Amino acid sequence: MNKKGITIIELLVSISLVSIVLLLLLRVMFSLNNINNASNYASSDEISRTTIIKNIENDFLNFKLKDLEINKLANKTEINLFYENNTEEKIIIKEKELTYKDTYSLETNKAYYDLEPVIIKQALDEDYYLIMIKIKVLMEDEKDAEKDDIVLTYVGLKNNNEDNTN
Amino acid sequence: MKKGFALLETMIAIAFLAGALLLLYSTFSGLVLNAKKNYLYDDVANIYKTYYVKEYLEIKDLIPSSNEAIQEISCTEIESLCTNFKIKKIYLTNYVLKEEEKNTLASSLKDYLNNLSDAGDYLKRLVIEYDIDNNSFYANIGVE
């Protein structure tokens, strides 16, 4: 009898074992690819997001945010920030960039800033007020994640003669 | 006449493949866990929210003074902040927690607390759970 070669059963078992391993590997690769796509935003723009939030919030705390107003223009939105030391700063929002003292550009291709920020101004009680600014980061063809938005908050003490709320 | 596959060969091949897959899976699990931690824990926006909540609680004298290791602070007195900040739960914990003190907690909170460093001069820690995108995000700040 010829002892060379392999039997068909050996072949089938080998192929099925290899295909199971390959299927699992493929699944792992797809998952890793999804994480990589998500982290593409995280790595290139998350640093900008963290820097923007930190810089603005530090100014809120150091100079005490008093009030703000929004100007909606053709291709951009401006948020004028008024501080208690009578200084004024501006957040300028364009689709692919945000400016607060420095300009930060969105590097992720599919991401863009929403030109309609959500502003909340309300009294917490008779002494304190809350101001929140939410600048959404929208993604083309993908579900927006609130976690990627630029959310700025400030809790301030009302001056005696002023009401900082609507 | 030699036919088919020896049982021993098959078992050895399967054992080898299983070992390789287990190694791959454990590496992959570690990657996913680290990605999850970066995503859910101590986001910069949430850290500032936590700071303001702490300041407001201190000003309004709403920080409990009992010696319990972990206490929950109700949102009743700070409803507006809780609603606007999307706060799910507020906890006041000892800065350094023992293992047995964490046993009764929800697994996501326990994972977060296990992730925290014990370095710092604070006695207590304010831990806030935020409900954003149907996920639990956590941030903490030291309380003196």
State the helix count of chain B.
Answer: 4
The strand count of chain A comes to: 10
Coarse structural class of chain B: alpha+beta
Question: Per the principal axes of the C-alpha atoms, what is the gross shape of chain A?
Answer: elongated
Q: If you average the pLDDT of chain A, what whole number results?
A: 85
Largest beta-sheet characterization of chain A: 5 strands, antiparallel
- Structural class by secondary-structure content of chain A: alpha+beta
Oligomer classification: heterodimer
Radius of gyration of chain B: 23 Å
**Cα distance spanning the termini of chain B:** 83 Å
- By DSSP, the count of extended strands of chain B is 4
Low-pLDDT segments of chain B:
none
Major sheet strand order of chain B:
1-2-3-4
Number of structural units classed as domains of chain A: 1
Characterization of this structure:
The complex is a heterodimer of chains A (166) and B (144). Chain A has 166 residues and is α+β, with helices and mostly antiparallel strands. Chain A contains 1 helix and 10 strands. Chain A has one helix spanning 8-63; strands spanning 65-72, 77-83, 88-93, 97-100, 102-105, 111-113, 118-123, 128-135, 137-139, 150-157. In chain A, the strands form 3 sheets. Chain A has a 5-stranded antiparallel β-sheet, covered by helices on one side. In chain A, strands 7-8-10 form a 3-stranded antiparallel β-sheet. In chain A, strands 6-9 form a two-stranded antiparallel ribbon. The N and C termini of chain A lie far apart (96 Å). Chain B has 144 residues and is an alpha+beta fold. Chain B folds into 2 domains: 7-40; 43-143, no CATH class. In chain B, 46% of the residues lie in helices and 21% in strands. Chain B has a 4-stranded antiparallel β-sheet with strand order 1-2-3-4, sandwiched between helices. In chain B, β3 and β4 form a beta hairpin. The radius of gyration of chain B is 23 Å and the shape is elongated. The mean pLDDT of chain B is 87. Classes of the chains: A alpha+beta (166), B alpha+beta (144). The A-B interface holds A 1, 3, 7, 9-10, 13, 17, 20-21, 24-25, 28, 31-32, 35, 38-39, 42, 49-50, 53-54, 57, 120, 122, 124, 128, 130, 132, 145-147, 149-155 and B 1-5, 10, 13-14, 17, 20-21, 24, 28, 31-32, 35, 38-39, 43-45, 48-49, 52, 55-56, 59, 78, 80-81, 84-85, 132-133, 135, 137.
